TrEMBL record:
Any one GO cellular component localisation term in the record: kinetochore
Stretches assigned to coiled coil: 1-119
Species the sequence originates in: Lepisosteus oculatus
InterPro entries referenced in this protein's UniProt entry, alphabetically: Zwint-1
Key words of the record: Coiled coil
Protein name: Si:dkey-225f5.4
Amino acid sequence: RDQWKALKSQYKDEIQEVESLITVFKEKVDEVLARKEALCQLLHTLEQKKEECKEKQRIKAGKQQKARERAERVCARVQELEAALERGRHGLQLSGQRVSELQAQLSGAQQSLDTWSRAHSRLQLELQRLDGLSGVRVLSVRERELHVELNPRLLCPSLDLLPLSLSLRWTSDDLFTLQEDLEEQPVFHTPGRPLQDARSALLEVMQLYVEQGSLLAEIQRLHSRFAIDWRPAERKLVFLKTASIVCTLSVEEGYPTSGRVQLVSVQGGAQSLNIAGLQPPLGKPSLTEWLEFLTCCPD
């Protein structure tokens, strides 16, 4: 019985110890569960943080992509602006050059206008001086140029002489030159020097034209019959007898009253000619008689 009591007492002690251990175990289990719950919450929090970090990274990456795209657009725009600026500078340079050219043209036009004004005033003055001058008719007026016609018949009706057309061209030094309009077949030798007084020059030319009227009238008539070239400065007449024979005649001063006509040369032909023996039968042949004689001579 005492043993039973001892066993019972031991059993109770062991029961209490087990219950105490169970209590401790429950506390440990509760602590573990609490830690597990805390870990689960921590894990959930970490997952949320992870998702937040990923979202932030996505947002940051998107912002960076947009920033790169914006930077690329800005760079492209800057390049466009630089190209436009360069084009603007080039256009400004061209505009400056064009302005300089226009200024030079304007200056030249102003100088031309001043020159034209002076020439116009000079022409008006000369026209006033030529107005009423016998035998002189103004044909046309151009810039720095005056075309007139001298009619010797108004001074000497017996002369069978065509009117003489002349051009007066003013130079930059306010002088003028006088030239016959028919440059390909001139019949009169005009003064080659620059002149100053148009009225006096035309009167002088008219006087010389009338003095040589008989010779010039004959040459004008011969132009319609023969292939001739009158060289007034040399007082020589070139006669194209055939396509290969050219005769040259010299007209002395004073012809036809005192001067004579002489055969100077005959070029071409099958054989050389002794021109000293070529002479019309008349003692003092005229130009017309010379040409008729040469035409009848055998080649």
